[in-house]
Write a structure and sequence with these properties.
Two copies of one chain form a homodimer. In chain A, strands 2-1-3-4 form a four-stranded parallel beta sheet, sandwiched between helices. A four-stranded parallel beta sheet of chain A has the order 6-5-7-8, sandwiched between helices. Chain A has two domains: 98 residues, 3-Layer(aba) Sandwich (Rossmann fold); 150 residues, Rossmann fold (3-Layer(aba) Sandwich), CATH 3.40.50. The longest helix of chain A has 19 residues. By secondary structure, chain A is α/β, with parallel strands linked by helices. Helices cover 42% and strands 15% of the residues of chain A. The first copy, chain A, is elongated and about 70 Å long. The first copy, chain A, is built from ten helices and eight strands. The model of chain A has no long low-confidence stretch (mean pLDDT 89). In chain A, helix 6 packs across helix 10. In chain A, strand 5, helix 6 and strand 6 form a beta-alpha-beta unit. At the A-B interface, helix 1, strand 2, helix 4, helix 5 and helix 6 of A face helix 1, strand 2, helix 4, helix 5 and helix 6 of B.
């Protein structure tokens, strides 16, 4: 039996999909997060779309399994493939099957037998939108370009290292939103107004802040033992930024205890960017 | 009753979460994709973490509902909040509840009562890894920098507009991988070898290709009616790129019918970048 450093038992968790594995992984991890005392060795296996593919995975999960029966989280729809996993001795969590039956009952129609239909016109449009959004985000990262700020869906402003860049990229890639971000530096103070570049677009601005300690830690990662990463400088910059947000009625959030996904969700809700 | 342009009945689908809504949205959409004949009006409602919050959503879903009873896909764990939705007349698809019971039985322990515990040390590390990866991807987009290519996890090479940038960003943001991408241009031919810049890192290279027609369409979006977007030029560039991949044993895939997520999954599997 495999144990981790603390002596806790480790179990294998497989995320098995007939497509990318992203849904199985996302939901499987959301479920496992409810068992903070347990330890898992995670495996994602995408593109399992045949009985042979399933048997290869089952062969793998039988070789030196960690702990008790492996847990298989799966979004596979094929009854034949599911039967292979059920017969393997693994604990099978069928993430879609039961819910599909519920939906069939509610909608009064049968679920399609085909695998993920991705490639319609809507998907081509979505692809273009994401591509444009990612390129827009790269062009407008860290105040690099002022071109076409008028078409931005949101302009994220914050001192350096408060999380502008990853949040910008997540909003672009996941939702196809046009997001620019602009750093607040010492040059922007002591003016009471927003930086001249973004002032015209005040209603699109969203601010990020964090705690001085967290900012100092994050900056220390990049440039250890500098004024830039000192607690004094971080405290000053955050106080100034928050004052600026308040004076100019820019909505803002504290990124220190939030994931990129959480920040993105808050920003979309606050700026009414949810469809 | 709301109908779409084709006269099909439209129903409301709500993705309701006590956190970001990403899991509810991902799985809910994966389920709805199995009913290609049905039409849905989608709403994502994050941060529903109180009975009052639930009642606000229920008030909303009762105002001019599209079609029959709305469908609520939810990842909310609170029994009280779930009871509100069950009493509302909506069809409730509880995405986590049943699976949590299955897991409890298999693990022999009860699910934690707390909401999403995100903010441990592991999450801070994951945050740093993603931030570094996104910055690396921006720095190395489209061959802009040759610095630190030796630490890249993968270098994506392809002619312009084959999908390098969004795929790079997805791998960085979702998986914290260090991904550079490098464009194949006319300058790189007629050499038989890989471009000098990436030649030393041949084992890290992964190629993208597409169909000439699709490439021409995508390029036309950017620069209509140019040599660059002509079918002849696209055909030539793709043939050369595929020859280059084959000669240099660079694995490659055709992006024309794949989503960014699918391409990322194939690349990770091919380059053995899955944990």
């Amino acid at each position: 039996m495999l144990r981790d450093d603390s002596g806790a038992e480790v179990r294998d968790a497989y995320f098995v999909s007939d497509s990318t594995g992203i849904t199985a992984e996302t939901l499987g991890n959301a479920l496992l997060a409810n068992f903070p005392g347990a330890r898992f060795r995670r495996h994602t296996v995408p593109f399992v779309d045949s009985v042979d593919g399933a048997r290869a995975v089952i062969g793998d999960l039988r070789v030196s399994p960690a702990g008790a029966a492996p847990i298989v989280f799966t979004t596979v729809k094929s009854a034949q493939i599911l039967a292979e996993f059920h017969a393997s001795g693994a604990v099978v969590i069928d993430l879609l099957g039961g819910h599909l039956r519920e939906l069939e009952a509610s909608l009064g129609s049968a679920a399609s037998e085909q695998l993920g239909q991705y490639h319609g016109v809507g998907d081509m449009e979505r692809y273009f939108a994401r591509m444009r959004a990612v390129e827009y985000a790269i062009e407008h990262d860290d105040g690099q370009s002022m071109r076409a700020l008028d078409i931005a869906d949101v302009i994220i402003i914050a001192p350096s290292r408060c999380g502008k860049t990853p949040t910008t990229m997540y909003l672009a890639l996941q939702y196809g939103l046009l997001v620019a971000n602009y750093p607040l530096t010492d040059d922007d103070f002591p003016s009471d107004g927003l930086p001249a570049t973004v002032e015209r677009f005040a209603s699109k601005c969203f601010g990020l802040t964090t705690t001085p300690l967290r900012l100092s830690q994050v900056r220390h990662e990049r440039r250890p033992d500098t004024v830039y990463s000192s607690l004094a400088q971080c405290t000053l910059e955050i106080r100034r930024a928050e004052d600026l947000y308040r004076r100019n009625r820019v909505p803002f959030l504290n990124s220190s205890t939030k994931s990129v996904e959480e920040m993105s969700a808050v920003i979309m809700q606050s700026m009414r960017l949810r469809s």
